[in-house]
Write a structure and sequence with these properties.
This is C-Maf-inducing protein. It contains 32 helices and 16 strands. The protein has 775 residues and is of the alpha/beta class. An eight-stranded antiparallel sheet has the order 1-6-7-8-2-3-4-5. Strands 11-12-13-14-15-16 form a six-stranded parallel sheet, with no helix packed on it.
Length: 775
């Protein structure tokens, strides 16, 4: 039925042109043969419906809704608007719109659902939802006689007018309704495809519509991707060529959007089946790069991580293999010395660790009689309460045949005492709870163990080697090494390819790097323990372990605490390496004797015998004896009680001065305005009577404070004004209970550390924190 009223016919030709322009802009592309149905309904020659609607009346269609205006709008999902419904033949519409007795308007809160326009108060005009499929025409209207901004929705039997408060809201409603209507049509059309060549055209039209829409919202690009992913999931028998054509068609949408989970599975399948396809390089590369740069949490979308893993494996299948992967990693880092994208490294590490873990999990779950990861950790092999294994897509399924001779072999340690584990489980003890164990729980359990040999197939070994080599590549970038060390610190595992990574950590002079070699917490093994002689990953007679000790001793770990830890847990390996002439271990044993770390006389004699068995050990032990004699002379009663070094004095000057006589009575030492550093702490700890120490305006830092806090328990006054100390060193002062005066003026002290020091130092009375954060 026609809803427009009669009018002059002189404007029919122009109006027909305007209507054709409108529908070309509104429709953009055909929907499986639907070639702008409205053109036949609303345009015509003189005297036709189109001529009547545009013949000089006060109500006119506005043509400025096309995206060429450059305006951008947020997609509306709901909002308040005035509604008027006119139910009568179209031939009277113009007369109705120009009448001053226009039908009444109702306020409604409308919601734009996926299939219809509904009201929060289903009464009056909006008693029933208005389906998008019932909307024949969607237009903008404007009044010349009144400031009203309307959107016209034409449906069989009537017209719905939506009146907004201003022109921007009107256009926002128009574009949002237009988008909902079109996406609803595409969803229906692509739900039951018949000819795939036509479907491909419609997919391209859908992509073009999303790219040219003036709406700015995440769903504008995500909705087409979800429609296409559903289409692909329901039609898995597509040819390879159809796969590639669809991927190329949707590539523009993926430039600024992550693929949805179903689409990730489709991409994974393509990477596995056609790893050498140009689609992998040309289309998937920018998608994976965007994922690595912008993804914040793979836990929320694990299929993004799985797609990234499959993409990297596809690159490894190319002729150049790991060289292509290396170039990809370099492209993610960038050509400069500093990677501009902070999320790239954590995401790459997450991908690598998940792939490595999946190799072991895939192998264990593929065997019917193999214990699960949790059962290996708990030391049992009960099968009745095991959950069915989750299928993993990382590895292609293979029959559980015996692995080849050259496959890698990992020794997994199992607890001997199965009864205690079973009892803990029956009592509900915390032997791991219901959570799945991690890789470390499976590979590192207890030294007193039986062993279970896990032999990985050659295919799994290739995957393992690929991602382990990526970790090796990451360790070669200086700016990434601190964060990489921190990420790998809680999860050490014995993989041969990772030894290079640990060596890079052990060679790095930065404390934030090599400090991650130690365990993340007490009671948990770290890389330091894994590569010590007797550790599950040690295959070099302790050479890497010795280099770790060397770098740690050269940093701020030359303390009693670190030496006590070595004496309690690694004294045997240290003595063995010292017996073989390792200079670092010889130095360690000498320090243990010098700092009285070993109380047992027999152990002390054994250490001395070990030192005297090699030339380097004998030489360093003789030097130790000489230092001890000098120390006794230094600490002999006598000498001055107060001493002030001249300005510009150095660590060597202080050492030379203290070696010149007895300073057993020295109680007050001023090094203010000198050039001494933390290295002079080794001389200061030899002064047994020292009570007041002035380090004002020196380069004395955190490492020196740690050493002082362990040896000068009687220190009462300490001046650190204008020194480079930070919270890391100042916190060590909490063990100096005799401190009663502490000057931290102009240091990097924070408020939290200041409060902690006040709580732990009961005798602290005089404190200067001016020009600090705690001031």
């Amino acid at each position: 039925m026609d809803f427009t009223s009669g009018g002059g016919g002189g404007g029919g030709g122009n109006n027909e042109l305007h209507n054709n322009q409108f529908y070309q802009c509104e429709e953009n592309k055909p929907l499986l043969g639907e070639m702008s149905e409205g053109n036949n309904n609303n345009t015509g020659g003189p005297g036709g419906p189109g001529a009547r609607l545009g013949a000089g009346g006060p109500c006119k269609r506005s043509l400025h809704h096309c995206s060429s205006s450059g305006m951008r709008y947020k997609l509306l999902h709901e909002g308040d608007i005035q509604v008027c419904v006119v139910k009568h033949p179209r031939t009277f519409l113009s007369k109705i719109l120009t009448s001053k007795f226009l039908r009444r308007w109702e306020p409604h809160h409308l919601t734009l659902t996926d299939s219809s326009l509904t009201s929060a108060t289903p009464t009056g005009y909006m008693e029933t939802p208005l389906s998008y499929s019932a909307i024949e025409d969607l237009q903008l209207l404007s009044w010349d006689n009144a400031p009203k901004y309307c959107v016209q929705l034409s449906f069989p039997g009537g017209t719905v007018l939506l009146q907004a408060a201003n022109s921007y809201l009107r256009d926002q409603w128009f574009h949002s309704l237009q988008w909902k209507k079109k996406i609803y049509k595409y969803r229906k059309v692509l739900n039951n495809p018949s000819r795939w060549d036509v479907v491909l055209k419609e997919i391209r039209a859908l992509v073009d519509m999303a790219l040219t829409s003036p709406l700015q919202d995440e769903s504008i690009h995500q909705a087409p991707l979800h429609i296409i992913s559903t289409l692909l999931a329901e039609n898995s028998n597509l040819s390879t060529q159809d796969h590639e054509n669809i991927i190329v068609a949707i590539a523009p949408l993926l430039e600024n959007n992550h693929p949805p989970p179903d689409l990730c599975e489709f991409f994974c399948k393509h990477c596995r089946e056609r790893p050498r396809s140009m689609v992998v390089i040309e289309v998937f590369t920018p998608v994976v790069q965007r994922i690595l740069k912008h993804n914040m949490d793979f836990g929320k979308c694990p299929r993004l991580r799985l797609f990234t893993q499959e993409y990297i494996l596809a690159l490894n299948e190319l002729n150049a293999g790991m060289e292509v992967v290396k170039k990809f990693v370099h492209s993610m880092h960038g050509p400069t010395g500093q990677c501009p994208h902070p999320r790239v490294l954590p995401n790459l590490v997450a991908v690598c660790l998940a792939a490595i873990y999946s190799c072991y999990e895939e192998f264990i779950n593929s065997r019917d009689n193999s214990p699960s990861l949790k059962e290996i950790r708990n030391g049992c092999q009960q099968q009745n309460d095991r959950k069915p294994p989750m299928p993993l897509r990382l590895l292609r399924p293979e029959p559980p045949t015996p692995p080849p001779v050259n496959s890698s072999e990992i020794l997994v340690e199992m607890e001997r005492n199965n009864n205690s584990a079973n009892n803990a489980r029956r009592k509900g003890g915390p032997s791991g709870g219901d959570s799945e164990p991690n890789l470390i729980d499976c590979l590192l359990v207890s030294p007193a163990v039986n062993t279970l040999s896990i032999q990985l197939p050659a295919q799994a070994d290739r995957v393992l080697g690929c991602f382990a080599l990526i970790l090796k590549m990451l360790s070669d970038y200086d700016d990434w090494r601190p964060a990489l060390a921190s990420l790998l610190q809680p999860i050490p595992f014995p993989k041969e390819e990772l030894k290079y990574v640990i060596q890079r950590f052990a060679e790095d002079p930065r404390q934030e790097v090599h400090s991650c070699l130690l365990s993340v917490r007490s009671g948990k093994d770290g890389w330091f323990q894994l590569y010590s002689p007797g550790g599950v990953a040690c295959d070099d007679d302790g050479e890497l372990f010795a280099s770790m000790v060397h770098i740690l001793m050269g940093s701020c770990y030359k303390t009693k605490k670190f030496l006590l830890s070595l004496a309690e847990n690694k004294l045997g390996p240290c003595m063995l390496l010292a017996l073989r002439g390792n200079q670092t271990m010889v130095e360690i044993l000498c320090l243990m004797l010098e700092y009285n770390i070993i109380d047992n006389k027999d152990t002390q004699l054994q250490i001395i015998s070990t030192l005297e068995s090699t030339q380097v050990g004998l030489r360093m032990y003789e030097q130790l004896c000489d230092r001890q004699r000098e120390l006794k002379e230094l600490q002999r009663k006598g000498g001055p009680t107060r001493l002030t070094l001249p300005s510009k004095s150095t660590d060597a000057d202080l050492a030379r001065l203290l070696s010149s006589g007895s300073f057993g009575n020295l109680e007050n030492l001023s090094l203010a305005f000198t050039n001494v550093t933390s290295a002079c702490a080794e001389q200061l700890i030899k002064l047994p009577s020292l009570k007041q120490l002035n380090l004002w305006s020196t380069q004395f830092g955190d490492a020196g404070l740690r050493l002082l806090s362990e040896h000068l328990a009687c220190l009462q006054v300490l001046n650190l004004c204008e020194t480079p100390v930070t919270d890391a060193g100042l916190l060590a002062l909490s063990s100096m209970k005799s401190l009663c005066s502490l000057n931290m003026n102009s240091t990097k002290l924070t408020a939290d550390t200041y409060e902690d020091l006040k709580a732990k130092l009961p005798n602290l009375k005089d404190v200067d924190v001016r020009y600090t954060e705690a001031w």
